[in-house]
Amino acid sequence: AQSVTQLDSQVPVFEEAPVELRCNYSSSVSVYLFWYVQYPNQGLQLLLKYLSGSTLVKGINGFEAEFNKSQTSFHLRKPSVHISDTAEYFCAVTSNTGFQKLVFGTGTRLLVSP
Amino acid sequence: DVKVTQSSRYLVKRTGEKVFLECVQDMDHENMFWYRQDPGLGLRLIYFSYDVKMKEKGDIPEGYSVSREKKERFSLILESASTNQTSMYLCASSLLRYRDHNQPQHFGDGTRLSIL
Fold first, then answer.
1. Which of A37, A109, B22, B48 counts the most CB atoms within 10 A of its CB?
2. Residues of A in contact with B25 (CB under 8 A)
3. Residues A85-97, buried b or exposed e (16+ Cβ, 10 A)?
């Protein structure tokens, strides 16, 4: 069975500052990892995904994430945030075994203030 | 672009009512999913389907059922609504790849359901 831990439920940050949202996963098999973003009153939108290959993955809106197999982590980063990045961010994991189910973390709310 | 449409953004129902939440996708995806989202709990899978008339229980199926009569449509049914089913419900779809599970899920905008 897989699980995802997002340790920070809320991350406050000032505009133009860098940010890192942490994600750790647990799995006994090879995984695929995703970050989704949810803006207020909307569904989830794919931000980026790690399937294989380069451990640094670039996504939309200037976000990137680094897959670290030894630390079982997939942290999301942005060097300079905007007010419009205020949203909830979800890390998710799946694997090639069983059905194509995603296991989600509990989410991190990013609050960007001026 | 994939479009996943949920029939209602907001819904208010009474306890004991039978409630139907509808979801339609336009990209011929085999997989469809129903989640509920609650603060501090993230997304929890209720049911999913990988083909017409096929369904599989997710992590929290109690009190819910589903119907998939057509490939593009996946309905979530609350047989007898209760107040603890007040939540945000999200529908998603994805391509089925038998040997490759890396297809992302595409989400609708959600239905905020209140049971009074």
1. B48
2. none
3. bbbbbbbbbbbee
